[in-house]
Fold this protein.
Amino acid sequence: MKRSEINAAITEAKELFAQCRFRLPPWADWSVEQWKQNPDTAKWCLERQMGWDVTDFQAGRYAEFGTLLFCLRNGQQDDADGMPYAEKLMVVGESQYVPFHAHKVKMEDIIVRGGGNLVLEMFNT
């Protein structure tokens, strides 16, 4: 994806989150310099893959085959304190498709906060 496409998707997501009155953490808008000034937070976020994730799944067609995620919490697989839990904001457009994926050891809640219809296909794994 082009950086301009990624930036546009993030801008649209921020507008949607604001409309839904969902506040992102302060580091969601940090510049490179702010990340450098906060190395402990940067390390913590990097280790847990926190923040923005915009992908077209290498299809080159984001509008039809892509998604935007903002990861708020993400447990680590090697954490002995229980099952890893992830909290992610997910923006999928009306005509976007997200490919199948599964987690063998992870718990995620799926909550529709912004309206619309979420269609899932479930498999017994």
